[in-house]
Design goal:
This protein is mainly beta. It contains no helices and seven strands. Strands 1, 2, 3, 4, 5, 6 and 7 form a seven-stranded antiparallel beta sheet that branches.
Length: 128
């Protein structure tokens, strides 16, 4: 999958990224490197607070680990936890080899965009 990711916001407690998708790939590609965000120190972790998307085929948002863990499976247009929705964030429950990074993966041609709002949960020195 060809993609372009732009950080829209990176504050002490949260990060917002916008990714444009323009192709096909059968492997997961990193869109958020948790260790490069503001305040990252040791073993950074993020949770997904909300998400808005418009994609032409199924796309998975994954937490990076030895075996990546799917956080969201997206298709078409939609959103998670936007506006009056009051759902809890999706926490990173990846097992061994967890890095805190976020990956996208699709197995068919996919074009579109995804906007992720992420909360810094641990491993950042500016959370105090």
């Amino acid at each position: 999958m060809a993609y372009t990711t732009r950080t829209l916001k990176d504050t002490d407690f949260e990060t917002v990224v916008h990714t444009t998708i323009t192709g096909t790939n059968g492997t997961a590609l990193k869109v958020v490197d948790a260790s490069t965000l503001a305040g990252a120190s040791t073993d950074p972790r993020l949770s997904i607070v909300s998400c808005t998307w418009s994609v032409s085929s199924t796309l998975e948002v994954e937490f990076d680990a030895t075996s990546n863990v799917t956080a969201l499976t997206l298709n078409g247009n939609g959103n998670f936890n936007i506006g009056s929705q009051q759902l809890p964030p999706i926490t990173n429950n990846a097992g061994s080899g967890i890095t805190g990074d976020i990956f996208l993966e699709n197995d068919a041609a996919c074009v579109g965009f995804i906007i992720l709002k992420l909360r810094k949960v641990s491993g950042y020195n500016n959370l105090t």
